[in-house]
Every structure is written in structure tokens, then in C-alpha cells.
Design goal:
alpha/beta; TIM Barrel; eight-stranded parallel barrel; globular
């Protein structure tokens, strides 16, 4: 199906507007009805453009038909500026599958390959995607940490600013994910003093003026949810996210897309643990899942306002 049949848009216009307006479009990961409901509620409440991101493993978890059913049931309008994005596609086949399903944006993550192999694969994805009006994101540099079974690495490497012009020209991709110190998962920093490499970001932005840059692994890991999880039987010791002030600073540059996943997972889990601890006789999922939706909606709204700066940008 064509993504426009679902009321979706690609990222071309929203990224151009974000760069001009010095804000970022949030890319929130979803994997079921509750996460999707929360993200859409937050976007509509704050009138923010939004990217609905889902990974290969999340698509497998939901199934193609259920995923498309959820998107259809969301009753999305093009005026809302909502994109459906494949997060961390690891092969040409995975990206083609997403495009053919009706995704309006795909990421090909070949960052673990050599520069030449990354270029070759990214170019192939861009060639197919652009025939269907779909936006393409690629990645240079490697983020450490674990997002899911498809996206994990024990090593990290910063993006080399000297490579970015050649890469973008050779591949024809529409946006570039860079590595400047973020990481996947809820354990992003060993101390509160660690900072993103804004010197690298500045150099890349100078090399690629007005070109959309993307920040992965950028959850802020709200401590109230970490504390609630630990209070109610969890074991998330030392979980730290990226400082919100640093993320807002990045959003004022060419960083026009910021990916968030862990924050919603934490908000969801905190709600479920808290509700079941407080009401141990409750076995109605709608009770604790309703609280989970509220928590996640609150997280998305807060980050749209205080990190992305994308409120009222549609």
C-alpha cells in the first residue's frame, strides 16, 4: 500500500521546517496499541509533528496485519504531519518490506559495515525508496548499548566529520544519524558529568549546512519512573539518560529528529508495577494499562515541550 492511503507523510517537509525553526521532530517507538495511543494523544494535544518509529523486531511482534490495522484505526490526517518510520532496518529486504507495507520513512543501519559497504547498501535502499516517495535515513558511527535483539553493540565510535559529505553525496540519503555520545538503553552515562560531543556536531553541521541530522539513543530516562520501578520490585540501578538541556541544545542545531524509546518503556513499566503493587487483587489489564497510557502520554508531551521544541509546529 501507499503511505498516503493511511494519511501519512514522509519526512522531507517536516525536517526542512525543523531546521528552519531550530527544533526537532520527535521519533517515538511503539510496539502495541497502548504505546501508539499514547504517542498520538501527545502529538495531537501539543500539535506537534511526530514520527511513529518501529523496529524490525517490533514489526515481528505485532505482525504486519495488526500493525497496519493499528495505523488504519488511528485515523491519521496528512495535516497532522505524522510519518511511519522503520527504525534500524538492517537489510535491503527489511526496508523494501516496510516500504511495501506503507511506511513513509525507513532507516538503513549499516553502521557496523565498512564505509564502502555502508555506502553501497544505503544507496540501494535510497534508490528503491525514492521511487516510492519514501524518505531514507542512514547512520555513520556506532552507538553502544542495547535497544532490542536486532539493535545492540558493545562498542561505540564517533562519526568522523571528514566522511559525511562523501557519504551523503554517494548514497543520496535524506537524513543522517550521527554518533556524538548517545547510546541505546537505559544506561547511557556512568556519571551526570558526561557530555555529548558538541564539537563533533558543530563540525558535521558545518560540513552539511541545512542537512537533516538525527540523534539516536536520546532518551532522558526520567528518574521518577526509575525510582518507581525500583520501589516496586525492579532493579534498575544506575540508570541514567541524556541531560535534557543537552538534548535541547542539540535540537537547536541541525539535529531535527531525536529518537526516544527507553523513556516510554520506563513509564509503561512504572505504571504497571505501581498499580499492581498498590492493588494486588486487581487482574483487569485495562486498569493498569490505562495508567501506563497516561504515563507515556505525559512523557511524550513533556519531551515535545522541553526537549524537541516542536509544540504547535504543524
Amino acid at each position: 500500500m501507499k503511505y498516503s492511503d493511511f494519511g501519512l507523510v514522509n519526512t522531507e517537509k517536516m525536517f526542512a521546517n525543523a531546521i528552519a525553526g531550530h527544533y526537532a521532530v520527535p521519533a517515538f517507538n511503539f510496539y502495541n496499541m497502548e504505546t501508539l495511543t499514547a504517542i498520538l494523544a501527545a502529538a495531537r494535544k501539543s500539535r506537534s509533528p511526530v514520527i511513529l518509529a518501529t523496529s524490525e523486531s517490533a514489526i515481528k511482534y505485532m505482525g504486519d496485519d495488526m500493525l497496519l490495522g493499528l495505523i488504519t484505526g488511528a485515523c491519521i490526517s496528512p495535516k497532522e504531519q505524522i510519518a511511519l518510520h522503520l527504525d534500524h532496518g538492517h537489510s535491503l529486504d527489511a526496508c523494501i518490506h516496510a516500504i511495501d507495507l506503507g511506511f513513509s520513512s525507513v532507516m538503513i543501519d549499516a553502521s557496523n559495515l565498512s564505509f564502502a559497504e555502508n555506502v553501497k547498501l544505503s544507496r540501494a535502499v535510497a534508490k528503491y525508496a525514492h521511487r516510492h516517495g519514501v524518505s531514507v535515513e542512514s547512520e555513520l558511527g556506532t552507538l553502544s548499548g542495547i535497544e532490542d535483539e536486532n539493535t545492540k553493540s558493545e562498542i561505540s565510535s564517533y562519526t568522523n566529520p571528514a566522511d559525511v559529505i562523501e557519504f551523503v553525496r554517494a548514497t543520496g540519503v535524506d537524513s543522517l544519524a550521527i554518533a556524538i555520545g548517545t547510546s541505546h538503553g537505559a544506561y547511557k552515562r556512568k556519571s551526570d558529568d558526561e557530555s555529548l560531543r558538541f564539537d563533533i556536531l558543530k563540525q558535521i553541521a558545518k560540513q552539511l549546512p541545512d542537512f537533516p541530522l538525527v540523534l539516536h539513543g536520546a532518551s532522558s530516562v526520567p528518574q521518577q519512573y526509575v525510582n518507581q520501578i525500583n520501589k516496586n520490585g525492579g532493579k534498575l540501578r544506575g540508570a541514567r539518560g541524556i541531560d535534557t538541556a543537552q538534548l535541547r541544545r542539540a535540537a537547536k542545531t541541525n539535529i531535527c529528529k531525536i529518537n526516544v524509546d527507553s523513556d516510554l518503556r520506563l513509564a509503561f513499566t512504572a505504571a504497571v508495577r505501581g498499580e499492581l503493587k498498590q492493588n494486588p487483587s486487581d487482574f483487569n489489564p485495562r486498569d493498569y494499562l490505562g495508567t501506563a497510557i497516561k504515563n507515556m502520554t505525559d512523557v511524550c508531551v513533556d519531551e515535545i515541550l522541553h526537549i524537541m521544541g516542536s509544540k504547535n509546529k504543524i
